[in-house]
Task: structure prediction
Amino acid sequence: MTESAPRFPTSLGTSDADTITLLGQDLAADLMGKVSFGELALWLVTQRRPTAGQVAVFEAVLVALADHGFTPTAIAARLTYLSAPDSVQGALAAGLLGGGSRFLGVTEDTGRFLADALAEAGEPLPADDAGWDAVALAAVRRAREAGRLIPGLGHPVHKVTDPRTPVLIRIADEHGLRGPHLLLFEAIGRVHPQVLGRTLPLNGAGTSGAALADLGLPVGLLRGFALLARTAGLLGQLAEEQRRPIGMDIYLAVDRNADYQPPEQ
Result:
């Protein structure tokens, strides 16, 4: 008896000699020139065609996270390109690999923190700001007692207000997508000084995580969307490195100012 060949199911894409099918659509006839890249990215993950409002929020997040100047991820990409100009993919990968708890990863960390806090609070969800403040206060206190930071609070440059935050909230609200994660995050912004003893801004990466979670996206993929956005920014950094290189200056500034100290005995 002949064993049947293994099967590898997918609902994403396939092709034959004449057509390419993606998400049940003819790629050339139904998608190209008719959907934006942001819409397609969201569709690929959810396997449901997003609404115009969902696309608007999602693409606003991508824009918010695309580039922030000479961040460690951008510097890593530029220095890798300096070392291996024949490997654009390596330079991009170097920048993306730096997406962690301090840069970019805050998007996922915040979404996960909010999802956990909502699960802890249970149903029904609060009906007013006072109710959300109570849930937020409990979540902040639990984190403080456990010695954990509150993801999404604070920014190294924007000490009072991250300019991206109110815009993302407004866009979500305009499209009826200001859901429980954003409402809870806003409440954390109101109550955290009671516990932390200081006032920190809600940063754009954290707000992005809350907005993405309100789109129903899996929390475990939120960092991936931050990396998707940052890929565009890193391409811009590498294009600028080709036009006006600074990688060698960064390298030499460190190398020429290295202060050698004998190993401690």
Remarks:
- The mean pLDDT is 95.
- The two ends are 71 Å apart (CA to CA).
